[in-house]
């Protein structure tokens, strides 16, 4: 019997949390809602396998927190198990961003109210910052996940039929409509391959196609 390498353990545990394009969108939307966003844009390319991008106008991530934002079990939402009694956020495990980094290439661009400009961070597979540069976005956070599951060929095969892909888009649409109903004051826009699919705001939604 042999012990698995740390990178393999990380990949296996991440693929339990991030099992599909829908699960990435769900985690990122919940982070945006936790950050107090009133506007969220979800953009996918090639059913999310080439690119998933979630942009919000929430509170942003402080430069001091950036080095640990995608490290597993780092969270700004609770500090001990006692806080679990009065949870007011969707997230609290500090696992989502780290897990997404394991199965995709992740860029995070963020700016808080106190920052003069936004910063784009490029992360590696274990959630460490590889590089950073100033960028031009307003307050809030944009998470971009590229080439999802590139290191898990079997999973990519599973989603290779057009029917499965369409079902995934439908699931994302249903998920966003549910958040739209839960949070009628939040504007949510969903775009796939540059075509708007739904726009939700103030309790109404419009199907664009
Ligand atoms: P959790 O949501 O369980 O805390 P995540 O891995 O999803 O864990 O996120 C880690 C941390 O990164 C969060 O606790 C939060 O501080 C920060 N974060 C992630 N996404 C956003 C966002 N869209 N806006 C502001 N902060 C964010
Ligand atoms: Mg989260």
From TrEMBL:
GO cellular component term of the entry, any: MutLalpha complex
Pfam families associated with the record: HATPase_c_3
Regions crossing the membrane: none
Coiled coil residues, start to end: none
Single GO biological process annotation from the record: mismatch repair
GO molecular function, one term: ATP binding
Family named by the database record: Belongs to the DNA mismatch repair MutL/HexB family.
Record-given protein name: DNA mismatch repair protein S5 domain-containing protein
Organism expressing this protein natively: Balaenoptera physalus
Organism phylogeny: Eukaryota, Metazoa, Chordata, Craniata, Vertebrata
């Amino acid at each position: 019997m042999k012990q698995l390498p740390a990178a393999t353990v990380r990949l296996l545990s991440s693929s339990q949390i991030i099992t599909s394009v829908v699960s990435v969108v769900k985690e990122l939307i919940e982070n945006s809602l936790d950050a107090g966003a009133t506007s969220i844009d979800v953009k996918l390319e090639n059913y999310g396998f080439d690119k998933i991008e979630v942009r919000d106008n929430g509170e942003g991530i402080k430069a001091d927190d950036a080095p640990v934002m995608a490290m597993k079990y780092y969270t700004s939402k609770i500090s001990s198990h006692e806080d679990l009694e009065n949870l007011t956020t969707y997230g609290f495990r500090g696992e989502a961003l780290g897990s997404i980094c394991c199965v995709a290439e992740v860029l995070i661009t963020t700016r808080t109210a106190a920052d003069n400009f936004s910063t784009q961070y490029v992360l590696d597979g274990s959630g460490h910052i590889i590089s950073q540069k100033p960028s031009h976005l307003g307050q809030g956070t944009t998470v971009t996940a590229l080439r999802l599951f590139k290191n898990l060929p079997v999973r990519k095969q599973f989603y290779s039929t057009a029917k499965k892909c369409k079902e995934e888009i439908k699931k994302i649409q249903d998920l966003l409509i549910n958040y739209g109903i839960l949070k009628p004051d939040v504007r949510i826009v969903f775009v796939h391959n540059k075509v708007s699919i739904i726009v939700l705001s103030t309790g109404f939604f419009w199907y664009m196609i």
